[in-house]
Specification:
Elements (H helix, E strand, L loop, with lengths): L11 E4 L4 E3 L8 E2 L3 E4 L4 E5 L4 E2 L4 E4 L10 E5 L14 E4 L9 H15 L8 H7 L5 H12 L9 H24 L9 H10 L3 E6 L3 H12 L1 H4 L2 E5 L11 H10 L6 E5 L2 H9 L3 E5 L14 E3 L12 H8 L6
Parallel strand pairs: 1-4, 2-5, 3-6, 4-7, 5-8, 9-10, 9-12, 10-11, 12-13, 13-14
Length: 333
């Protein structure tokens, strides 16, 4: 026999392994305020934005006491097209590129760096583990410079600092050409849910931008060939050397919000790395982390939410309504 529960101010809901809370059927037309939702591994919390209003003070906590959406799964189902959204939407949705739109690092950028090193006969190879460490440095040119400064410059590299900058720039240019060839062949797919979330944003008048430390040509290729030309026309790109200081510095996100004419506090960022998260939070923006292959074990305690991906139905993790709900501080990690 089905059980009925009354959920009121300061209630606590505990979800144990494999349990589910679906507000579209269980909490239909209810209001949750100052409610604690405590979940375990494999729990599912589905929040239907048409039927359930979640007010300030709602907290999601894992049963091990650590914040964020880690052990279980939270789904905020979008309102139907005939219904007005029940939460305020972001003014802008900003995506990192590598690791967020496409998991490009291991089998894209790393391969292109190594092919470039081989062409130039530098005797350098970045294996999977080493490249994972190098990703802590934002920007390909900066990454190569830091690596050579640490292990020693190749014999074929020039000696003066100015010539070495030109040498690094030439390597990066060739690496970008090789990477773009991979993208144009569509060898790397979009991550689950990316196209869906972009479409939801564009359909609701939310501005969309991609903010990346990668070369602008490489980012543009990803947007054009993988995200699609029609969407690309409506997406602003901020990438490469458009700002003097790269992530974790917030400069690129502050530039994007300023150019788009939106307040940072009204923006939601999708990132996959600790340095990207730091940049978004320093800019005063909400940040959702979708973990990628290289970043799964990084520290995301400052994130507003953490998922393994955005996800497409029926495996959707979150949607635009969930992004909007973060702006009202409905979910506190």
């Amino acid at each position: 026999m089905a059980a009925t529960a009354t959920i009121s101010h300061s209630s606590s809901i505990t979800l144990y392994s494999n349990s589910q809370l679906n507000t579209s059927s269980v909490l239909k037309n209810t209001c949750l305020s100052s409610t604690s939702l405590v979940y375990s591994s494999s729990s599912t919390i589905s929040i239907n934005s048409c039927n359930t209003k979640i007010c300030g003070g709602v907290t999601l906590k894992s049963r091990n006491g650590r914040g964020g959406i880690r052990g279980g799964r939270l789904v905020c189902l979008a309102a139907s097209s005939s219904s007005a959204p029940s939460v305020n939407l972001p003014k802008a949705l900003m995506f990192d590129c590598d690791g967020v739109l496409v998991d490009t690092e291991k089998d894209g950028h790393r391969i292109s760096f190594n092919d470039t090193f081989a062409e130039k006969e530098l005797g350098v190879t970045w294996d999977v583990d080493l490249y994972g460490e190098l990703l802590k440095i934002g920007g390909g040119k900066e990454r190569m410079t830091a690596y050579f400064n640490k292990v020693g410059w190749p014999e074929k590299a020039p000696k003066s600092e100015e010539e070495r900058k030109e040498f690094i720039a030439s390597l990066h240019k060739r690496k970008t050409e090789l990477f773009m060839a991979l993208i144009e062949k569509k060898m790397l797919p979009l991550r689950p849910g990316v196209a869906k979330l972009i479409d939801q944003a564009l359909d609701n008048g939310v501005k969309v931008a991609v903010c990346s430390t990668s070369n602008e040509k490489a980012v543009t290729a990803i947007i054009s060939f993988l995200v699609g030309p029609k969407r690309a026309e409506q997406i602003q790109i901020y990438a490469g050397d458009v700002v003097p200081r790269k992530k974790p510095d917030p400069a690129i996100y502050l530039l994007a919000s300023s150019t788009l004419g939106v307040d940072p506090s009204s923006c939601v960022v999708i990132e996959d790395s600790a340095i990207g998260l730091a940049a978004a939070k320093a800019a005063g923006m909400k940040c959702i982390v979708t973990k990628s292959g290289y970043t799964a074990e990084e520290d995301f305690l400052n994130a507003d939410a953490v998922f393994d991906c955005i996800g497409d139905p029926p495996e959707e993790r979150f949607d635009l309504s969930f992004c909007g709900s973060l702006l009202e501080k409905q979910y506190v990690s």
